[in-house]
Specification:
Length: 71
């Protein structure tokens, strides 16, 4: 069936205290569906997989995890 990037981020934000957010350019991918399997509580595994599934990079700060379109 698959999940959208929005759904993946929503799941990630349920299980982490550091919010996962999309930058403006990456938000165009919000409705893109993908099918893959991971434990929804394993946010790190999901974040590690995203650059293999979407043209994005992951940037971390003390306050958030930012998903950006790869340049």
């Amino acid at each position: 069936v698959g999940a959208t990037l929005a759904e993946l981020i929503e799941d990630a934000n349920r299980y982490t205290t550091t919010p996962v957010i999309l930058d403006e350019a990456a938000s165009r991918l919000i409705d893109t569906k993908v099918t893959f399997s991971f434990d929804t509580r394993d946010t790190e595994a999901m974040l590690a997989a995203l650059p293999n599934l979407f043209p994005v990079s992951i940037e971390r700060s003390e306050t958030a995890v930012l998903i950006r379109v790869r340049e």
